[in-house]
Design a protein that fits this description.
This protein folds into 2 domains: 4-87, no CATH class; 112-342, Bira Bifunctional Protein, Domain 2 (BirA Bifunctional Protein, domain 2). The protein has a 7-stranded mixed beta sheet with strand order 1-5-6-10-9-8-7, with helices on both faces. A 3-stranded antiparallel beta sheet has the order 2-4-3. It is elongated. 32% of the residues are buried. The chain contains 12 helices and 10 strands. By secondary structure, the chain is α+β, with helices and mostly antiparallel strands. Helix 1 packs parallel to helix 4 (60-87), helix 2 (28-39) runs antiparallel to helix 4 (60-87) and helix 5 crosses helix 10. The structure holds adenosine-5'-[phenylalaninyl-phosphate] (FA5). Residues 173, 175, 199, 201, 207-208, 211, 213, 215, 253, 256, 284, 286-289, 310-314, 316-317, 328 line the site of adenosine-5'-[phenylalaninyl-phosphate].
């Protein structure tokens, strides 16, 4: 049996060692190791408490009180050291230098052409048009033949494009989606179709070889040119402003009859003529017309029963007109100094 005096000495030694270990702990991990060593279930102090039962009954209260006091002091030292360690600056991270200038957050933004597309689609959504998409890799049938463009006809040259494989090409306009929608949906149909198109065009101030278009198509019984014209004028007023005038010029597209190019008065000069509109006072905004009966036949609609109109606009050219941008390439070069102006 351990004599009580020796037990008291052991207790004092454990407490002193424990306090020293706690004080010299350099991290929370080291502190935890000290706690386990001195206060843990098989730690030094617990061992002394266990042996207390073997001491003479008269001395147990004194020894017990001393052991509890040692335990309390060790626990208090542990808590104090833990607080100090948590507050101390980490050794792996240098302290923050509050005199340094702040780092600017990098905010993204919607591309100006995408913004124009969204705005245009929203105006047509209010008129009951759904927003749909179609494939960018297209067959000759949808890109040309279903649209009343025989492959050997010179009109096919208007949309010269990039071939991916025999009979498969990158679509040169969004008009093929007209045929795809009509094949799968019965009238009435009202859709707008934004998407990329590809042409063997030079990359110059007004042309890009890859550019966006928005197709529009409305088909039902009794749709006439008056409804078409009213819809487009409503769109122009909403998008460009109440005072913008619209002009329809006769044009030729194999898939519409009659066909028209639509112009709006130039936003930069109000129609007087300036460098944006090349002195004409007008900006061309879309190709359009009443859907050709041959297209209805190709997709299985009855041309005696249904009529409709279609249009195709270039949102990048529209964005140029709206923001007074002189060169379309600025939209596609990815220069943040230019793009950041539209955030
Ligand atoms: C067409 O592509 C017809 N599919 C439009 C159409 C649809 C007519 C439905 C009738 C009915 P066009 O080739 O004119 O038409 O192109 C339409 C618009 O796309 C142009 O007004 C122009 O804004 C834009 N566009 C054409 N080529 C380019 C290009 N290389 N870069 C940027 N925009 C272009």
């Amino acid at each position: 049996m351990t004599p009580p005096v020796q037990l008291l000495d052991t207790l004092t030694r454990i407490e002193e060692e424990g306090l020293a270990a706690i004080e010299s702990s350099g991290s929370l991990d080291e502190l935890e190791a000290a706690r386990i060593r001195y206060l843990g279930r098989s730690g030094g102090l617990t061992d002394v408490l266990r042996r207390l039962g073997q001491a003479p009954a008269a001395q147990r209260p004194v020894l017990g009180a001393a052991a509890n006091e040692a335990k309390r002091r060790l626990q208090a030292a542990l808590e104090e050291r833990a607080v100090a360690l948590k507050r101390a600056p980490s050794t792996t991270r240098p302290p923050a230098d509050l005199t340094m200038p702040g780092r600017r957050a990098c905010w993204g933004g919607v591309h100006p052409v995408t913004r124009v597309i969204d705005e245009i689609c929203e105006i047509f959504r209010e008129l009951g048009f759904s927003r749909v998409r179609g494939p960018e890799a297209e067959t000759e049938w949808y890109n040309f033949e279903a649209l009343n463009i025989p492959l050997e006809h010179p009109a096919a040259d208007m949309w010269d494009t990039f071939y991916l494989a025999d009979g498969v090409l990158l679509r040169s306009h969004t008009s093929p989606v007209q045929a795809r929608i009509m094949e799968t949906h019965d009238p009435p149909v009202r859709v707008v179709v934004p998407g990329m198109c590809y042409r063997r065009d030079p990359f110059d101030a007004t042309h890009a070889p890859a550019f966006e278009q928005i197709e529009g198509l409305a088909v039902d019984e009794g749709i006439d040119f008056v409804e078409f014209r009213f819809t487009i004028e409503h769109f122009v007023h909403r998008f460009f402003g109440k005072h913008t005038r619209t002009r329809f010029r006769p044009a030729y597209f194999p898939f519409t009859e009659p066909s028209a190019e639509v112009d709006a008065t130039c936003g930069s000069c109000g129609g007087d003529g300036c460098s944006t509109c090349k002195g004409t006072g007008w900006i061309e905004i879309m190709g359009s017309g009443m859907v050709h009966p041959a297209v209805f036949e190709a997709v299985g609609y009855d041309p005696e029963r249904y009529t409709g109109y279609a249009f195709g606009m270039g949102p990048a050219r529209i964005a140029m007109a709206r923001y007074g941008i002189p060169d379309i390439r600025l939209f596609y070069e990815g220069d943040l100094r230019f793009l950041e102006q539209f955030r």
